[in-house]
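Reminder to self: tokens first, then the designed residues, so the page reads top to bottom the way the pipeline ran.
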């Protein structure tokens, strides 16, 4: 083997060694990336905005894949978790679904009925009453006869709110001279039979129906003597 052939063999061996070195470098980079990123898992993001207290369903989300280590501990990876849930706040399109974005939808218990009434948005709700909240329902009535004082009554105490509907603009009654709501929100309650009748009566005959939010964990019990109020008795 002459000197030219020996140089060719040496160059060939060097090329092979370089190729192995480059291949080993690529494998090292891939291994490093995998160790930093880790395996991918399935998550779900919103296709469009979802309003607060809206019932959730699987059609509102799309599947995405991302490294497991990038997901928060409360990320939802199984869409079965949205069954029977509602959004607790405004959900934005493109946001990853997390368990703290939703709560279980309130349900009826044995002996309860659903009843929905329209409540004045300005004075009766103010955006603070949500599904699952407990409220006292107040109604004001004119005197039965001319000259009789008006009364405010607690129609139902500790009423459980099931749903809060969308703000609705109401058409004014031009033939009416009494106060009328211009915007109202449908509120659905879970009540026993007697309280359901009280709510229905108040909606039909009261001049105003308003809700008072009961603080969570507090005792909203009202004494019998405090259920009716008249201004002339407030000394």
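Designed residues (235 positions):
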């Amino acid at each position: 083997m002459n000197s030219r052939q020996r140089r060719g063999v040496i160059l060939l061996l060097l090329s092979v060694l370089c190729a192995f070195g480059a291949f080993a470098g690529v494998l090292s980079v891939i291994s490093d990336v995998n160790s930093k990123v880790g395996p991918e898992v399935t998550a779900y993001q919103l296709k469009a905005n979802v309003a607060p207290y809206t019932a959730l369903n699987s059609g509102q989300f799309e599947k995405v894949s991302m490294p497991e280590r990038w997901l928060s501990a409360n990320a939802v990876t199984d869409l079965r978790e949205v069954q029977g849930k509602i959004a607790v706040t405004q959900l934005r399109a493109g946001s990853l679904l997390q368990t703290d974005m939703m709560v279980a939808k309130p349900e009826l218990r044995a002996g309860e009925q659903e009843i929905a009434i329209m409540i004045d948005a300005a004075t009766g709700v103010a955006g603070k009453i949500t599904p699952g909240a407990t409220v006292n329902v107040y109604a004001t009535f004119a005197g039965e006869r001319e000259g009789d004082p008006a009364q405010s009554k607690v129609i139902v105490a500790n009423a459980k709110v099931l749903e809060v509907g969308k703000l609705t603009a109401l058409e004014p009654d031009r033939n009416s001279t009494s106060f009328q709501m211009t915007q109202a929100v449908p509120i659905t309650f879970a009540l026993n039979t007697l309280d359901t009748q009280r709510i229905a009566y108040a909606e039909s005959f009261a001049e105003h129906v308003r809700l008072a939010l009961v603080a969570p964990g507090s005792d909203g019990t009202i004494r019998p003597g405090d259920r009716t109020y008249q201004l002339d008795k407030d000394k």
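The chain has two domains: 40-104, 113-233.
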